[in-house]
Amino acid sequence: MPGATATPDIELIIEDSHGGGGGIRPPGGGDDGDDGERGKHQPDRRPSPRRFSTGIAIGMLSILMFFMALASAFLLLHHSSRVWVAVRLPRILWANTAVLLGSSFTLERARLRLSQGDVSGFRKLWFVTTVMGLLFVTGQLVAWRELVNQGVYVASNQASSFFYIFTGAHGVHLLGGVVALLFVLLRNFEKSQISRSLAAEITSYYWHFMDGLWIFLFALLYLSR
Question: pTM of the entire structure?
């Protein structure tokens, strides 16, 4: 009957108006706790660390392929050319190699300090690494100067051409690593999409790669004398 259903409905309306229930709630809740819950469940919009690792891996692979192509041409000409004149390597290259190896050591010590929460110690050792990188590049320019004083130029012969190409191309790529070191040293990571520790880790991959690449190139030049 109509009268039987109207009475319960009226009672429910009276209970809602006097019970403080507030009637209809806004969609999705309306209290402060709901806002906090929504904030907690929002997806993290920061880029994935794998994205940076993949990018640097692709970059290093392309650099490696470039130098392997040069090394193949170097070895082919060295064994087949009848006009090959070996370059007398400047002694400063040994010092440059030691400096670059030392920079890898100080870089890893810096990362260790960072993992221990010693940001000040990290900055000091990271700065030393950056200076050593610049010192290596300066040493390579000194080596070029010594060869020029000896009358050995890029176009002097095949061996000298490869020496300048190897050291020049490696130096340019190493300067890219120096820029990355400066980025980690000077960047304000509080407003960055990447953490300082992750940036230091990615930079270390590239720096150690350039270190190992130079060892390979130096050994190639030394053994082909």
Answer: 0.77
